[in-house]
Amino acid sequence: MLDQYKEQQPYLLALDSIIFGFDGESLKVLLVKRGVEEKTWSLMGGWLQPNEGLEQAAARILFDLTGLSNVYLEQLYAFGDPQRDPIVRTISVAYFSLVKIADYETKISEAFQARWFSIYDLPPLLFDHGDMVDLAIKRLRYKAAQHPLGFELLPEKFTIPQLKKLYDAVYNTEFDKRNFSRKILSTNLLIKLDEKQKGFSKRGAYFYQVDSSKYREINNSFLNFIPTSELAF
Predict the structure, then answer these.
(1) Of 114, 130, 146, the domain-final residue
(2) Are residues 127 and 90 part of one domain?
């Protein structure tokens, strides 16, 4: 039986992270500059260590590169085309993560030339990282329609118009204001605060925050969270 192991070829296993953030206007992905090619960018990633499981390694790499922990992190897909890395046979397990950009900006190491790019205006990407981003966007859209994932990208306090802008950005469309507001409020996930956002309109918009206990309770349930009939992919 040991001979069967000896006959196998060893391969490298990498983990790449598609890190999504929202700046209030557009959905963005975090990329780092590659030293090998001046105009090439890549996802943040690293290597699996001998004593790590995949989830542990993905969380460790994300923390090492951004300083962030306890953020939304989900395994996306395994990319294993024999030609994906021209240097050595490498299998990559991709994860996508949702972070608050304000949190990220205070924690990122200055050692990395990192930059946020709109998902609709990406530079040339290394290897098959473009395929990873495309698949991650599709997964995010699917899950955000059924689960309240969008809150992971927003600050602690937000307005309904801010929330709508996020979903407009995720789906590259514009939802009807009344339908969106009615659908969101019908989930009973939000707590209305006494505080209003000032400086954007005469009346101002009330701030809301997520009811954390209800969020944990229904996060794995299917809600039809947004009016999906309006989607325009």
Answers:
(1) 146
(2) yes
pTM for this one?
Answer: 0.86
Q: Range of 76's domain?
A: 2-146
Segments in the chain forming alpha helices (H): 2-6, 54-66, 101-105, 129-146, 160-171, 177-186, 212-218
Q: Using an 8 Å Cβ cutoff, are 75 and 59 in contact?
A: no
How far apart CA 31 and CA 18 sit, in angstroms, is 8
Contacts of residue 74, defined as CB under 8 A and 6 or more positions apart, other chains included, come to: 95, 96, 97, 139
Amino acid 169 reads A
Tell me the three state secondary structure of residue 207.
strand
* Measured distance CA(123)–CA(138) in Å, rounded: 19
- Per-residue pLDDT, averaged over 21-49, amounts to 86
Contact present, 72 and 50 (Cβ < 8 Å) = no
Q: Give the chain's count of helices (H) and strands (E).
A: 7, 9
* Averaged pLDDT, 152-164: 91
State the residue for tokens 């993905």.
58
Q: What is the CATH number of the domain that holds 64?
A: 3.90.79.10
Each residue's pLDDT tens digit, 179-221: 888 888 888 889 999 888 876 556 778 899 988 777 766 655 5
Same domain for 188 and 132, yes or no, is no
Domains in the chain: how many in total?
A: 2
Q: At a CB cut-off of 8 Å and minimum separation 6, what does 29 contact?
A: 18, 19, 20, 21, 43, 116, 117, 119, 122, 133
